[in-house]
Design goal:
Blueprint (H helix, E strand, L loop, with lengths): L8 E7 L12 E7 L7 E10 L4 H4 L20 E8 L9 E4 L6 E5 L4 E3 L15 H13 L7 E4 L7 H10 L4 E6 L2 H9 L5 E4 L5 H8 L4 E6 L4 H9 E9 L20 H5 L2 E4 L9 H14 L6 E5 L4 H9 L6 E5 L3
Parallel strand pairs: 8-9, 8-11, 9-10, 11-12, 12-13, 14-15
Antiparallel strand pairs: 1-2, 3-4, 3-6, 3-15, 4-5, 5-7
Helix pairs in contact: 2-3, 2-8, 5-6
Length: about 350
């Protein structure tokens, strides 16, 4: 196809200030910046879909973590899918679609080696940022490798209506779990978990103490806990944990905006008597599972056995609102920003 003309400038989101507690819109700035022509080995991509994810909150802090902090007054980074409109890289031509890490902007010029081609005919482009992308692999690797899910397990998932949690619960059922329980932050999300995602039970954590609601949903205890929330949820899961259970710690969104240290689970000493195992999960450690994950999960998506939801906002202007909404739990499934084609 003919090469598309790139604009001279395009918009990108910069981190203007490091958030103190909950981020606010003034912590971000939408900036007009030059669009750079690709050099040797590079491609220019017009982004079509941008991802916002909970881990990004950690990168807005100056604290050293597993990912480098975002730099002030520089464009932020995140997952994106887009179309190549100019290429100086072998194997990439105008019209190709790619997945890459220069989100939060309308156009991105990058080393082609830092991108992966995706097929819009095999699955909707948005799914490469969600169910067939990083969140999906997070769910798959956490549950199968760290959680060591096996037939007959009772599985509890917190944040179960989010991009990762909803996939965790469904894969657990597909892998033979005896019972899958989810928590979410609204009655509508609870209904989704049971009626659409096939969870055996779900509860709204805002309706009462998590420990009491979990006890009612899992009277015989749990074998695997997939933690996206931390705090009260983690303490309740430890209380309900059976002998030799497994806790997969994927996220602790309840603590991301805390300005004071939050109390650890007060019952962590139960790890001795119950001999449960608790392990943190970073998806970057598990990319060796990618081929198996795509093969298995894409087949479940095509067959309709695995359902997914997306919450989509429109246009680059909506990206910060989408991110703030994600932290508040406004999303059902993957939170995405759709840019004009």
């Amino acid at each position: 196809m003919a090469e598309q003309a790139a604009p001279a400038t395009a918009r990108e989101w910069h981190l203007a200030a490091r958030p103190q507690g909950w981020p606010v819109p003034t912590d971000f700035a939408l900036v007009e910046a030059p669009v750079r022509t690709p050099g040797p080995g590079e491609i220019l991509v017009r982004n079509t879909h941008l991802s916002v994810d909970p881990y990004m909150r950690g990168r807005m802090s100056a604290r050293k973590s597993y990912a480098e902090p975002y730099e002030l007054d520089k464009p932020m980074l995140g997952g994106a899918v887009g179309q190549v409109i100019a290429s100086q890289a072998e194997g990439f031509t105008e019209g190709d679609y790619v997945l890459h890490g220069l989100g939060w902007r309308e156009y991105a010029t990058l080393d082609a080696k830092a991108s992966v081609k995706v097929d819009p005919n095999a699955a909707p482009l948005s799914t490469y940022l969600g169910v067939l992308g990083m969140p999906g692999l997070t769910a798959y690797a956490g549950l199968t490798r760290i959680g060591e899910i096996k037939a007959g397990d009772v599985v509890f998932v917190s944040g179960a209506a989010g991009a990762v949690g909803g996939i965790v619960g469904q894969i657990a059922k597909l892998q033979g779990a005896a019972r899958v329980i989810g928590s979410a932050g609204s009655d509508e999300k609870v209904k989704l978990l049971v009626e659409e995602y096939g969870f055996d039970a779900a509860f709204n954590y805002k309706n009462g103490p998590v420990a009491e609601q979990l006890q009612a949903a899992a009277p015989d205890g749990i074998d695997v806990y997939f933690d996206n929330v931390g705090g009260e949820h983690l303490e309740a899961a430890i209380e309900a944990m059976n002998l030799h259970g497994r806790i997969v710690v994927c996220g602790m969104i309840s603590q991301y905006n805390a300005t004071e240290p939050t109390p650890a689970p007060r019952n962590l000493a139960q790890i001795i008597a119950k001999r449960f195992r608790m392990e943190g999960l970073l998806v970057g450690d598990h990319y060796d599972l990618q081929p198996k994950f795509v093969e298995e999960v894409s087949a479940w998506v095509r067959s309709g056995e695995l359902k997914y939801r997306e919450t989509v906002t429109q246009g680059i202007d909506s990206a910060v609102d989408a991110f703030l909404g994600l932290l508040s739990g406004d999303n059902v499934g993957k939170m995405l920003i759709k840019l004009p084609e």
